[in-house]
Amino acid sequence: MGICVSTASSETHKAEDGSDNVVVIQNSLQNEEIPKLDSFHSQQGSKGPNQDAAILFQGYGGEDGVFCGVFDGHGKNGHIISKIVRNRLPSLLLDRKNALSVLDTAVRDQDCGDQEDRLESDSKLMSNKVFHEWKEAYLSAFKVMDKELKLNEKLDCSTSGTTAVTIIKQGEDLVIANLGDSRAMLGTLTENGLMVVQLTTDLKPSLPSEAERIKKNNGRIFALRNEPDTLRVWLPNDNFPGLAMTRAFGDFQLKNYGIISIPKISYHRLTVNDQFLVLATDGVWDVLSVKQVASILWFAENRETAAKAVVDAAVTKWRYKFPSSKVDDCTVVCLFLQEKR
């Protein structure tokens, strides 16, 4: 399935290793002299097909717009579902946002009195307006995306699905939406050096608010004996399927028992001190802390291979920390916000 792109003058590229797990869309109108400020890498683990997928869309919804997304599939058809969502969600989201913007413009045109007097106040409220529109677009797009998967008769999504962590950057406005246990973080400079801001919370059964919803819907939560630190979600009367997250696209067998596809959405206003954004699947976060990832990126000699350096470190740590376990798929997308000093 191809990428749906609403910007006519854009180019689509696969990762340099030929893998279609990472797709990069570059708006051809952008100045080619601008330094390359992104890095991405995906590596298959030892469990089977690489079920991770990622996208970096430069020029999304405008010249200064960026859409980043990382999707970690699971179950028999997880490798298919993660790519379907990766390919469909950006255009679906932008369609919803544009529809909301048209509606908002129509409302403001009907109430244009004292516009000059309200100019300063409107400017202060712009960030709130941007967030509100994107939030509504996200909620609508995720609902439609999940419905499309359910209606896909050629694909069994009953016990397969995918996480989704995405970021939309428009100027200094940052909107983050999270579904599952992939993660987004921000590296920012302070007087004391580099500081890490975790932009998302892992939506797992270990989170009290998530566990409460599962139990209210008669889902069960417990860990297996051979992995006591990993809580999973199970059917009421069957020790199956054992999902390690509480929100996901797909997984329809558990949707009546508290698993939902409603994303957690948040906003962040970027400053000149913010250095880079990172999105990665749990194959990275299961073995590396956010501080370790930030340190690798900050001291990387070559920005273009910085994401690969993180993945390489994660794979090495997997083999050391879990010598008897199969290495998970690892995917990293990094967006550098400032030129290297």
From TrEMBL:
<dbReference type="InterPro" id="IPR036457">
    <property type="entry name" value="PPM-type-like_dom_sf"/>
</dbReference>
<protein>
    <submittedName>
        <fullName>Probable protein phosphatase 2C 12</fullName>
    </submittedName>
</protein>
<dbReference type="GO" id="GO:1902531">
    <property type="term" value="P:regulation of intracellular signal transduction"/>
</dbReference>
<dbReference type="GO" id="GO:0004722">
    <property type="term" value="F:protein serine/threonine phosphatase activity"/>
</dbReference>
<dbReference type="Pfam" id="PF00481">
    <property type="entry name" value="PP2C"/>
</dbReference>
<feature type="domain" description="PPM-type phosphatase">
    <location>
        <begin position="37"/>
        <end position="337"/>
    </location>
</feature>
<dbReference type="InterPro" id="IPR001932">
    <property type="entry name" value="PPM-type_phosphatase-like_dom"/>
</dbReference>
<dbReference type="InterPro" id="IPR015655">
    <property type="entry name" value="PP2C"/>
</dbReference>
